[in-house]
Automatic annotation (TrEMBL):
Protein name: L-idonate 5-dehydrogenase
A Pfam family this chain is assigned to: ADH_N
Name of the top EC class for this enzyme: oxidoreductase
EC numbers for this chain: 1.1.1.264
Required cofactor names: Zn(2+)
Any one GO molecular-function label of the UniProt entry: zinc ion binding
Region Disordered: start-end pairs: 324-347
Keywords carried by this UniProt record: Metal-binding, Oxidoreductase, Zinc
Organism: Streptomyces griseoloalbus
Family designation: Belongs to the zinc-containing alcohol dehydrogenase family.
Key word Nucleotide-binding present: no
Alphabetized SMART domains for the sequence: PKS_ER (SM00829)
């Protein structure tokens, strides 16, 4: 089978690998669609994502969906041909967490995540024609939700987790700063959770167009001199740019809440943070998700439309071009999708 494998910085190849055989408790997936994430780009460009560095080749991809091709021994409740996606995280260890974070498995100290080099050996992802997956990580797609949409359940779950970290949104005005794929999904998630008005801000007009299509009532083009609104109850910072923190804190109402969704640098960076104290702002971090992928699938079933997020589609054989498109701000891309089969059963 073909697989998209990163071998080092700037070195991604479509390799031939043996088709896996599902073991006991596993399911073999014939994969159809995968979505490119910032971590995939980082492994390709730098050989690392955050603190995780490649020590051997890695199959990329943690956003993917397909159909069950075979069941391993002992698997029940699933059937061949069934369209599914996956929960990409699997805690490593006894599962025990301190009482203060009981149930928050996204904060478990050691987690295997598809397409991640955080542990050695690395955890191969799903940018391949087939992938064996533990049945416990399989999530069937609801009727009416295709595998292309299903591949985006994972980033939608990230957005829903972020929204869940905030106070109740119903009837409130929300600001989303940074309208890449996650930011635009936060727009949709905030709308899904009943936000009365959603304002989206970014430096790129194409990203703002996607945010509008995903449900933003108003957009602010910061590159054209627009400024952030004032006194917003709940703000989501999705750019991960330290320079944005000062203006975003200033936009947050006194006593309001700022949810940090965008990954901030792991090294020292200058940022203006004075308003955090003087305005008594609650600043909350948001990391991956727990079981919100189930909520994401319900939202897709109920009509939340993620297709405006998709700007480009490439066949698996053109993975490097797809990564380059996703990484290039001049391309106008939002979510770039890989078609993981020669002929997908749907578009």
């Amino acid at each position: 089978m073909k697989a998209v494998v990163v071998h080092g910085p700037g070195d991604v190849r479509v390799d031939e690998r043996a088709r896996p055989v599902p073991g006991a408790g596993e399911v073999l997936l014939a994969l159809e669609w995968g979505g490119i994430c910032g971590s995939d780009i980082a492994y390709w460009k730098k050989g690392a994502s955050g603190t995780a560095s490649l020590v051997h080749p890695l199959v990329l991809g943690h956003e993917f969906a397909g159909r069950i091709a075979a069941l391993g021994d002992g698997v029940t409740g699933l059937h061949e041909g069934q369209p599914v996606t996956v929960h990409p995280a699997q805690p490593v260890g006894d599962g025990a967490l301190p009482e203060r974070i009981a149930g928050r498995t996204n904060l478990y100290p050691r987690v295997r995540y598809f397409g991640s080099a955080a542990l050695t050996p690395h955890t191969d992802g799903g940018f391949s024609e087939y992938r064996a997956v533990p049945a416990t990580q399989i999530r069937p797609l609801p009727d009416g939700v295709g595998t292309e949409q299903g591949a985006l359940a994972e980033p939608l779950a990230v957005a829903l987790h972020a929204v869940g970290r905030a106070p109740r949104l119903r009837g409130r005005t929300v600001l989303v700063n940074g309208c890449g794929p996650i930011g635009s999904l936060v727009v949709a998630a905030a709308r899904y959770h009943g936000a009365d008005r959603v304002v989206a801000a970014d430096l790129a007009a194409p990203s703002l167009a996607v945010a509008r299509a995903m449900g933003a009532d108003e957009t602010r083009d910061l590159s054209a001199g627009d400024v952030l609104p004032e006194d917003v109850d709940v703000v989501f910072e999705a750019s991960g740019a330290p320079a944005a923190l000062g203006p975003v804190l200033r936009a947050t109402a006194r006593g309001g809440t700022l949810v940090q969704v965008g990954n901030l640098p792991g090294t020292a960076a200058a940022a203006a943070l004075g308003d955090l104290v003087t305005r008594e702002i609650t600043w909350i971090g948001s990391y991956r998700f727990v079981e919100e992928i189930d909520e994401a699938l319900r939202a897709l079933r109920d009509g939340l439309d993620v297709t405006p997020l998709i700007t480009h589609r490439f066949p698996l054989e053109q993975a490097e071009e797809a990564l380059a498109t996703a990484a290039d701000p001049r391309s106008g891309s939002s979510k770039v999708m890989l078609r993981l089969t020669a002929e997908s059963t749907e578009s």
